[in-house]
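Task: fold both queries, return tokens.
Query 1:
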Amino acid sequence: MAESLKRLYIFTGKGGVGKTTLSLAFTRWLQEQGHSATYLTLSQQALSDETARTESLPAGWESVPHVHLELEAAAEGYITKKLGSALLAKWIVKTAFFRALVNMLPGFGYVISIGKILEMLHVDPKLIIVLDAPASGHALTMMEATSNFREIFQSGLVFEDTEKMLAKLYDPQHTGVRIMTLPTTLAMQEALELQVAVHKLAPLNAKIFLNHSLASWSEAIAEAPKALKEKLRLELDVMELHPQDVAGRFAYSAKSDATSVYQDLKATLGGLA
């Protein structure tokens, strides 16, 4: 594995910026480079009695290796590991007290899920996980949660486990945060605020990437409707204001199917590493 590659990539950003498409495309790109990569999504970070929904990939991306991490299964796995009994773990997770505890404590579900992700990486030293994380605020909560629980449990097994988790999660050689945004002032401002918050939390290199860029289309849309040219002008204004803040751009793709969109993105996906 190349030294520049991380073991865990956390893709986040404001809703609707294209982080799912880009994280799927990056996973596929990693595979094409010969790496063992998996696209990972999380279930709702609360325990309920409802039957878990089957999560499927968007049309055209079905060949990308995908793990949908259910919180209940992750909790059972953790307790089994600590108590040495799968039967007892299953019973504990089903108790009203445990479910209320997980749902009541902010971020507890994320701690369990992050622990499972890091365990997967430990078991398979060659694996790279691309996490399609929740939108900005929830993603920050997810990253803060482990640190918060270290403060709550200042000794014992949970404290020791969170210490080990933080050593990996907050290691810039291990974890990369990739913030997706759109070429608008408001979207860029939210991305910058998230980047600052991540940097305050840990020494991670949280990079901002501009998606749906029209810059490469500037000549092609010279005769386009006024609204489209105005959109390009606004993008160029954003780039003029933040020339050092954007780590890379992904051009707007007019293609309608996943295979063609991937071909449009492929040339610049390496920048996400």
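Query 1 returned. Query 2:
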Amino acid sequence: MGLPFDVLVLVLTAEFFRRSLGLDAIHHHIADTHALSNDFCTPEGVAEIAAEYRDVLMRIARVTGVELNVHLSSEFDTTDTYKALLSEIHTGKGEYVDRELTDMLWYRRQHGVSLKLGWLIQAIKSEQGFDERLYDEAFREHCDGGMSFAYVQPGRTFDQRRMKASPYIAIPGERRIVFKPDTNARAVYEEAVEVWGDKKLGGAVNHLNAVLRLWDKISKTPAPRTGDVIDRVQAIIDLVFEN
């Protein structure tokens, strides 16, 4: 499907915090091993997607000037160091949650990470779905201190049935702008307009405008200012794949 355009919120906000707080580096985690816990995932498919996502993230880093380190779980979670950390975690909430906490510990102890940036589906917690607070709260409960947490808003789709979504995962059939060389942002938007009408897509368009403002504030490469918000989104995607 592709890495959502919304991933820029995470990358650029992380750079904002790095500059503001005087932090050393940004580490972006791709949980490829974790994905294999889903029955519909295959090792070959996960490896292909992980490689694609890393490539896009590094392209974004080059264009924006963000010094981004991208790590895959599979690159370190079979090491003795990681296994030792995993053996310390017993949440009672399943291996997936235990691995999420172990990842945090690994980044803190191996790279000195002290701030984890995640996303919230909504400000007030509910029983419908979950976001990264599930793992962060488990970390506070089961691990020692030394990690702070910050959150960005969720990604947005052009589908009124599922308006809020993860900023780094797009699912098949979702009306969403993604980082692909052949992405046609205008076509994605106009198809959604035909279904829902432009007035119901105002929230998603406002979200894209917010991403563009963040780009203008953080990126070393200005986004062209000609055209409307969809044109500018397309211009950024084209910039990313020019490199």
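Both queries returned. Flag for query 2: Strands lie at 3-4, 26-30, 68-72, 115-119, 148-152, 155-156, 164-165, 178-179.
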